[in-house]
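The pair is quoted verbatim as follows:
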Amino acid sequence: MKILQPDWVTHDDKSIFSIDIHPNGDKFATGGQGNDSGRVVIWNLKPVINEEAEKDKNVPRILCQMDNHLACVNCVRWSGNGQMLASCADDRLIMIWKKSAGGGMGSFGSTVKFAEHWRCAATLRGHAGDVLDLAWSPADVFIASCSVDNTVIIWDAKEFPQILQVMKGHTGLVKGVTWDPVGKFIASQSDDKTLKIWKTHDFSLYKTITEPFEECGGTTHILRLSWSPDGQYLVSAHAMNGGGPTAQIIERDGWKCDKDFVGHRKAVTCVRFHNSIMKRTAPKTNKSQQYCCLAVGARDKSLSVWLTALQRPLVVIHDLFQDSILDLSWSHNGYILLACSGDGKVSCLQFSAEELGTPLSEDEKNSLYQRMYGKDRITDLALIEPGKELIIENPYLFKAMQEKLTAPTLIPQSAAPATPAKAPEPGPSVFHPAISQDSPPQRKIMKQIETKTADGKRRITPMFIPLNDDVGEPAVGSSGNGQFSSSTASKSSIITVEKADEPVPSTSRSSSNVVDQDDIDKLTEDTVKLDIRLTKCANQPPTTAVFPPDPPEDPKQKAPIQTMDTGPPPVTGKATPLPKTTLRVHGNYRVQVQNDSIKTGFGVLCKVIGHLITLPKDDKKIWETLIGSPVVCVSLSKKTVLCCSLDGSIRFLDIHTGAPILPAMSLTSPAVHCCFSPNSNLGAVLTENCTLRVWDLQEQCVFLSGTCRDIVTNSYPSVMHLSDQGVPFIILANGSSFTYSKKLESWLITNSADPIMRHGLFGSRIGLTPRNIKAYPLSTIQSFGPSASKLNPMAFLENSNKAWQTPAMLSFIQNQIKITENINSPDEFRFWHTMLGFQLATHGTEEKVRQILDGLFGTAYRIDGEIMGFTKATLIRDILDQLKTQPKWQRIYTEYDDQLKMRSGMMPPDDVPEVPSPLVLPGEGEEEEEEADGDAKMDTAVP
């Protein structure tokens, strides 16, 4: 180490209050008292550190001198890019200097010509008293100033002289200010014995630290504090520990104040970290260490240099000046330390790489910042713009942000079947349906039917794959957890039959038979009647599909709903008697309907026969009943058979005995659709004239009576489903779908040609959701129709940058939430709240995020109350879990997370990872093998 004291660096023997080295290391600036004014001088650094340059008269020493301030200059600071120099003085002004082309003249009336010309580009007026300290923000976006008027002012460096914020909170003279190099905080220190931490996103007060300063007695002219280059430690001036002056170390993690630099005999006036993080090989372990370098100046006229990897100071220089040290400055990429004093002198300390260590490269610093904050070292100006906060402070958030944000799925991917033929073990998931352990085994796929017309044309009836695996036995073609496996379709076989004539189109949705593969396998070879029935039912063409929980019906009728818009639509709304022989199967029960089976003098009777399949080769008839009008609709549940006749009468029969459960009832017109709820407790009928009736079979009373006339003006119902809660769903032939709200006495739109609905269904990929009508009724209903499955993807991609898409998607999601609440679908209700959080995290605005969260925190429900079986805290947490993955929502996440914990008593997660720190504080590092000699020794105290 070398100590140089150029006597020619002077302000005419007046005090020098501030010094700062230019970022490129070729010059430095000083500020202090001039002749009857404040003075700023820009000096050439080369003559200071190079003896030959100092002797060379062609090498200028003073590059420029500015005497524009009316009073003593208290601080000078270069901007990070070196293009601007800021100075502040007792004249309450801040001046921003910029270099002009060519040389310049001295002050007014002077004939001295300087090598450089720096002009005052802006004058900042706002303080009511002397301005004592300055600090540029990272990336030079702002500049902060502090004053004896007890305030800190933030100036917009892009729009001088605009004031962004006046931060009030100190009750004494503010004498020091510094920016967090990470870009999240700004710190200020005052004579009121406090150090305050302010947030940069809105410049609000975040933390007040008082403990290290409570014993402080007298004061100093300035209190220059400094932040470590990695942002982990803030070191203050003028603290006390046990009655002795210290430089207090304040840890970013929890703002702990349990360590300090001690040894100076009088108050510490200024501290300054080296701009780079250093590294070296530890003497004993030969392991690489990363640490920071800090210089401390005090009123005792001494200067100490510390490495945070050592327990003792690297060097201590006593009586370096004749007065207090007032400012310090490190060269950005070198080993130069400049210090100035109230005696008007400047000292230069030259270190070597062996003494200080080697600065980390930019790549190494970026890697360090990425590891600690999830962000490269500050280069993005948006990082510290007001209202934006992208630095990760919370280690729990840092862990969450390592994971890529993906759209939530109604059924988690982990619940998907490993193979199409085998259902997986259901994992723990809020959105996963409960699976009964005593569910019957999965049935084999039904056979398809191929028919040949008289002219030799072939017609293959599409195979119907039920959607609900919770009624009776699991749905054919779906896994045990209700997820559809398309590969099962390849297992089906084709039965070829001959027919002589083309069939007459039928409008009845139930006008065909369904024969299950298991049923065929269970019959003996002698049971050829089944083949005869298949031949007879082949006379009916395929029509639209029906929804479960109806039992499997004839394959020709059970065409997948996706094909309902292909080909000409069937004749609207007329009920047509079923074929002469029709089968319905549910579990081990088979019901056979024989229209026109008995002729009497009073008319033709219809016979309904119940069979029980006990063994693969045993089909036992268990009951038989007669109906006086042809059956047009029939549906089965595990308890009941519903038969609807052409004369408008309906009958509920016990599936075990054939006895009537309710008396025969008459409707104004024959039924075109009938179905049961999955739990078999409710039955529904929809008639030709749009009358909708739902009965509670346990209470033996009507549950719902209404009409769907309002929704069938331009189409006709093709599918009807009834939920366990008695909520009916109707899908029209044009793809639109509706559900009825008994509370609102209105039909709710679940699918339509509305652009917002189309955009929402396509954007949320509802059509890809595994269908499970019992667990996820809304999504299953919406998975049908052209809005979800037939929208051209290019129509979405071509408009991917349109401004309307985000509000449209939010509108769609919020409507989904309201529908699920009305139809009482709790799993979907929570899922769409999670999807709302995802949409807000990716495309939301702060105003919208706050609106949604404030609405959940509002007074409509208590925070510990329940909505659809979920506490509001659970729904808020689902949204926050989506927000926490995006750094821009860190501030809002923390704010509402704290509010949620406070109001609901929730505890923070236990698995919070520790953020690695590259620094080793005094007392934690390894001692040097050789201590400093002689006067360089200084005692330290580490509590």
